[in-house]
Amino acid sequence: MRAHRAHRQLLAVALPFLAALVVSLLVAGCGQSLPTDGATAPDVPDSATSSLSSPPSSDSVTSAQPEDLDDLFAGLAATCQPMTIFAPTVLPEDAVLADRWFPVLESQDPGAYDGPPAGNPQVLGSGSDSEVQVIFQAGEGWLAILENFRGDLGDVTGTPVGTVAGNAAAVYEVNGGELVQWSQDGLWYGVFGRGIGKDDTVAVALGMQPRSAKSP
Asked: Which residue range forms the structural domain that includes residue 128?
């Protein structure tokens, strides 16, 4: 009888302790519960996405914002208005404006060009009939920005690469290089790269933006 009474006394002491322990564990486990109605879930960062309308990443392209380059394309926009002039926002990191123009699309070596000397940029015609080429040297390679391009690509098929200022663009393998071409207002524009790599040529093209004329 004494042993039975002692056992009942032990249970009377232990049960409140066990009940408190269970409640504590339940409360701790509710810390990660789903939000109830009206509650907001924790913010979850959006996963990284790539867009063809943006220039693809490349370790060898860099922002193109030097003041003289900005003035150059603003001047072209003033000379060729009302025709739209596109200016680069990225260039290969070692790109420099070439001392003179030569036909990068047709020739791999400026020394092989035996035509009349021409300044860089080359501007043919005037106003909305202007044809413009701006030549950059990038290491051993060359880059040509083409405004109102009138070349014939023949039967070459292009591969879509995204958009330039909202205009669909495609890349073509031509003349030992890559040409990214798009159209605006019925005119053709392009970026041609020779010896600088397809990715860098596409990056430059997709970064092109319309440039306003320089204020007098």
From this structure: 61-210
Report yes or no on 19 lying in a domain: no
Distance CA 107, CA 92 (A): 20
Name the pTM for this structure.
0.69
- Counted domains in the chain: 1
Whole-angstrom distance, CA of residue 107 vs CA of residue 27: 77
- pLDDT, one tens digit per residue, over 120-172 is 999 999 888 999 999 999 999 999 999 999 877 767 789 999 999 999 999 99
Amino acid (1-letter code) at residue 35: P
Domain contains 151? yes
Domain assignment present for residue 5? The answer is no
